[in-house]
Design brief:
The complex is a heterodimer of chains A (157) and B (290). In chain A, 34% of the residues lie in helices and 15% in strands. Chain A is of the alpha+beta class. Chain A starts with a strand and ends with a helix. In chain B, α9 packs antiparallel against α10. Classes of the chains: A alpha+beta (157), B alpha+beta (290).
């Protein structure tokens, strides 16, 4: 079946199999490898994408479900090649990652949070990140990174 | 042991744009079809080969199935309404706060962005967190097939784990919550604070008038093959003084109504004891200080 949607602002038109998940389609067909395949059953959050601005699991969506008006955002869409977004800068500065596998999901979840709540409290951050697992258990630094990202965003406005 | 996740098996995909079209497809395929709403339960189950389908009928392109509306006969919540939307709805917060409370501790935000009202109910997990609130609110469920529609009280909807009265040719189109005066409360006990299935969940609704309980309803999840009402507790409190002693005594009666199992999350004995504790606490939030 043919599928059309926007990926990081770019129009995509491709043939997909009915049983292909959006996660596999992004990684295998479109080479968007920032979207990670962890558990592949909705538990870990490594495959998080933003669908029309909201964080969702790409392993629980079928690629054929995407519509022409749907906008999918991955970390590739956060900044120009070779540059870092403020959220990425904050994660670098605060050591918000160890092995890095959960990081793309964490960064997109940060963007979704800050877009609706520019200065979240620690409690609000914890609530938002309930579904993003870090197997290195570096949660403290991730929370610090989100707080720092909020600060950087506020300063640059 | 559950089988691990594998790629989805080959299946056909249909995305009807009207309810009529969806019902026709369902009439044709019946048990060979599966309805796709949020996909947060169906997709993992298909990957694990716990559920099979020749065709997946995607309901996400039927706008009429989603939405929240306050009408004369109650609050109508469309089957395809996302859990997030219900949680953030001002009218639901006002008319059915206990449902908002329960959704707030369900799964995690990305799952709530996709997961739906109908999905949580039709999956019919004994631990479905929207069930106890809907049970104490006396909600009804509207089911529609190509032949017609019917309304089922939620207390008759669940038949067993993963079993409901919904027939293979029916779609859950909406949940209707009557508007009623009273107080309500919800509590959930899990293995951890967030992103976890309930070990025990409990909801209560009642009015306290002149210091006495009226219209007491209690419901529990994850302690029987289906979410249940605590009838004996309700009867014991009806018309009684709303105080801590009466609540504590009545809450003990829930032990005779639950039929918990032992599983990897908790033992039968623990669930039975915690049923009493949660029943006491939700009722205490409504009438404990009277």
């Amino acid at each position: 079946m043919k599928v059309q949607f926007k990926l990081n602002g770019r129009a995509i038109t491709e043939e997909v199999e009915d049983y292909e998940t959006l996660l596999d389609f992004l990684r295998e067909t479109l080479n968007v490898t920032s979207v990670k395949k962890g558990c592949d059953e909705g538990d870990c959050g490594a495959c998080t994408i933003l669908l029309n601005g909201k964080p969702v699991r790409s392993c629980l969506l079928l690629a054929v479900q995407m519509r022409e008006k749907d906008e999918v955002t991955t970390v590739e869409g956060l900044s120009k090649p070779g540059e870092l977004s403020v959220i990425q800068e904050a994660f670098v500065e605060k050591y918000g990652f160890q092995c890095g596998f959960c990081t793309p999901g964490m960064i997109l979840t940060t963007k979704a949070l800050l877009d609706v709540n520019p200065r979240p409290t620690v409690e609000e951050i914890k609530d938002q990140f309930e579904g993003n697992l870090c197997r290195c258990t570096g949660y403290e630094q991730i929370i610090e990174s989100v707080l720092r990202a909020a600060e950087l965003r506020a300063n640059r406005r | 042991m559950e089988a691990g996740a594998r790629p989805l098996p080959k299946m056909d995909y249909a995305s009807p744009s009207s309810l009529k079209e969806a019902l026709e497809l369902l009439k044709k395929y019946k048990n060979k079809a599966r309805l796709l709403s949020g996909g947060t339960d169906l997709i993992p189950k298909m990957k694990k080969r716990l559920v099979t389908a020749e065709v997946v009928i995607d309901l996400n392109r039927i706008p009429k199935l989603a939405g929240i509306e306050l009408r004369k006969d109650g609050l109508h919540i469309g089957g395809l309404t996302r859990l997030t939307e219900i949680k953030e709805s001002r009218v639901v917060r006002e008319k059915a706060p206990v449902l908002v409370q329960a959704i707030g501790v369900m799964a995690c935000p990305p799952i709530r962005h996709r997961g739906t009202m109908a999905g949580n109910l039709c999956t019919a997990s004994p631990a479905a967190d929207t069930a106890p609130p809907l049970l104490v609110l006396n909600a009804s469920i509207r089911l529609q097939s190509a032949k017609g529609k019917r309304v089922v009280p939620i207390k008759e909807f669940f038949q067993g784990p993963q079993k409901t009265v919904r027939r293979p040719d029916e779609i859950l189109t909406e949940v209707i919550i009557p508007i009623q005066k009273g107080s309500s409360a919800f509590m959930k006990l899990g293995r951890r604070k967030a992103f976890t299935l309930s070990v025990v969940s409990a909801a209560a609704f009642a009015r306290v008038r002149g210091g006495k309980f009226e219209d007491v309803r209690v419901a529990l999840g994850a302690v029987a093959p289906t979410p249940i009402r605590g009838r004996k507790v309700e009867e014991a409190l009806e018309g009684k003084e709303a105080n801590e002693q009466n609540i504590a005594q009545a809450a003990e009666l829930i032990k005779g109504e639950v039929k918990p199992i032992s599983d990897l999350r908790a033992s039968e004995e623990y669930r039975r004891e915690m049923s009493v504790v949660l029943t006491r606490r939700v009722l205490g939030q409504i009438g404990g200080r009277g």
